[in-house]
Amino acid sequence: MQQEQRIDSLTGIRGLAALLVVYAHLAEERFFTDTHLFPGEMGVMVFFTLSGFLMAFLYGERDPNYPSVARYAISRFSRIAPAYLTVVLASYLIYNLVDPQFVYAISHDNLLRHLLFSGNVSALWSIPPEVQFYVIFVGIWFALRAFRTNSNVTLMVAVLGTILMLIAYRAQLPGTFIGSKIHYFLAGVVFGLVRTRVGASVNMTTLAVLQAGVIGLVLAVILGIIDVDLGSKRELYLTLETAGFAGIFVFLFSFDTGLSKRLLGNRLMMLSGECSFSMYLLNIPIIYAALAVMGGLPPRPALALPIIAITIAAAWTMYRLIEMPGNTLLRQLGTWLLLRPRSAPVVVPAAVEGAGPVLIQAPQVGQGVQVERP
Fold this sequence. Notes:
Layout: H1 8-28, H2 39-59, H3 66-98, H4 111-115, H5 127-150, H6 154-168, H7 182-197, H8 204-222, H9 233-238, H10 240-252, H11 258-264, H12 267-274, H13 276-294, H14 301-338, E1 346-348, E2 358-361, E3 370-372
Helix pairs in contact: 1-2, 1-11, 1-12, 1-13, 2-5, 2-7, 2-10, 3-13, 3-14, 5-6, 7-10, 13-14
């Protein structure tokens, strides 16, 4: 499979995860009946696992030379920075100048932390582990390359040893640190690497049956046919079984079968997936504003529907007006800073004996040839 091939179901998975988060936040405000299944946390787990999956799928087989790593860094930063920094700065202004009760309480004291992608206000807590994983993946990438090209296991053992140590002590680590969530990213990486080895010749009927089995299992849990005790939210995040299930789910639905296209490749899921990051960032402020507009009106499902529609519309608008242009601008800037070609100086014999070589620099636009003696 070509790495550039678009997999619609993965975009749909992002949309599903974002909608689960929105549903959970509405349930917290009593628009829906709350559930012990923690749909919001499930959505975040899928986001983490999908990040690991995509990094391994897109980059795992490539050579991590300087241009590749630079493009990777540019791509990752330009993907999250426009929407995230916009929300951080807007929240800072709203909280300090308009509404001191604003749900994203970004003040003078914690602004710098959030600008450095290390804040933990409300839903923004999940951004630091994501960014930290982007850094850790570079080490995984180099370890994969060393093992693949030279059968050198030293770096692989060091990287895996570090990750396994973090997993072993995950319960003692803060939630905004990658170590407390590394098992989700690792599950994604493992299944992403497996996905790169699975070609288009795989039996789609078998995959559709497996997908149907997973859906049936999820429905059985939701309907209470299968009783599952997930414990507290923190206990759920620490569980290795949920990380494994998330990895299997993302792997199976990375294949565009007829079933996955109907469930995850439809227009709603695709649209939600495209603007999923903006939806994740905006849904809590929108719910906060909706509650203020409602006044004393009791929350109920009928009122949740327009809030969901407004959230999707606002997220799509932000995606089109901020994420996409910002992504393009930052990619161009990053490419200019890190990947622009550098013209090598040309050494020309000196015309005067004993004068030494003369360096002729490549001319700039509108300039003549510059000559200088070393």
